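Researcher: Quick test of sequence recovery. Tokens follow.
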């Protein structure tokens, strides 16, 4: 009887503690304080649905719409997008409803927002990018509305897994981390047949899953052998090359 009593007390306590630990892991870490501030090169605006980075000088013909990883604070990806905007690429970071977009209705809302962003700026060639779950959602959007975007940049994901994008007329880049415990380079390559034959594959040696953003950690992820700063520079260079004309 005493054992059952301990179990009834400890099991809920463990569940609550584990949930708090998980939520803590998805919070931002190390984001520069001025990232969300407008400067001479980039205008930053923030609303309920997205964070927007508009170049103020040297605007280029290509831009990026970015979908964050599931449960991750979207601010974790703002250094990357501001850096892209600082070299001329308009960037929009879409907020996932409840940081997940898990229901069909929420996904439809996200897709409508992507389409609206693209349609409002038809003078720009838009690339749709995402990390982890965000990349999965990007592949689903491409399946339904490939004509709305010029290409995909898929970061740290094994998707698409359940449908075939090999015939879509899009420029596709897949970026992986050599130490990614969530989406390893081998697991990502296993679904290569579902992407266009001309897909560009980029592996960042020593990179893990969480350091593709500025957040603390992720369960089952590998340990990086490079710093977050080094990984972020490599990611910036890879994305920039992917969306260049």
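Model:
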């Amino acid at each position: 009887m005493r054992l059952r009593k301990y179990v009834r007390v400890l099991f809920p306590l463990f569940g609550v503690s584990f949930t708090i630990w998980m939520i803590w892991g998805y919070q931002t870490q190390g984001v520069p304080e001025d990232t969300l501030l407008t400067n001479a090169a980039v205008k930053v605006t923030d609303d309920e649905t997205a964070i927007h980075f508009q170049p103020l000088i040297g605007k280029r013909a290509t831009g990026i719409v970015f979908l964050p990883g599931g449960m991750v604070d979207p601010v974790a990806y703002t250094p990357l997008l501001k850096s892209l905007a600082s070299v001329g690429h308009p960037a929009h970071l879409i907020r996932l409803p409840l940081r997940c977009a898990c229901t069909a209705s929420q996904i439809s809302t996200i897709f409508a927002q992507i389409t609206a962003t693209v349609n409002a700026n038809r003078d720009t060639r838009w690339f749709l990018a995402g990390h982890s779950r965000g990349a999965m959602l990007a592949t689903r959007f491409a399946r339904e509305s490939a004509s709305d975007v010029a290409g995909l940049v898929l970061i740290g994901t094994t998707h698409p897994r359940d449908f075939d994008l090999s015939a879509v007329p899009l420029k596709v880049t897949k970026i992986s981390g050599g130490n990614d415990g969530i989406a390893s380079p081998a697991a990502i390559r296993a679904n290569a047949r579902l992407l266009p034959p001309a897909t560009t594959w980029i592996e960042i040696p020593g990179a893990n899953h969480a350091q593709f953003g500025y957040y603390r950690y992720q369960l089952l992820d590998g340990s990086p052998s490079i710093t977050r700063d080094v990984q972020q520079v490599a990611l910036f260079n890879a994305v920039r090359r992917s969306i260049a004309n």
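The radius of gyration is 19 Å.
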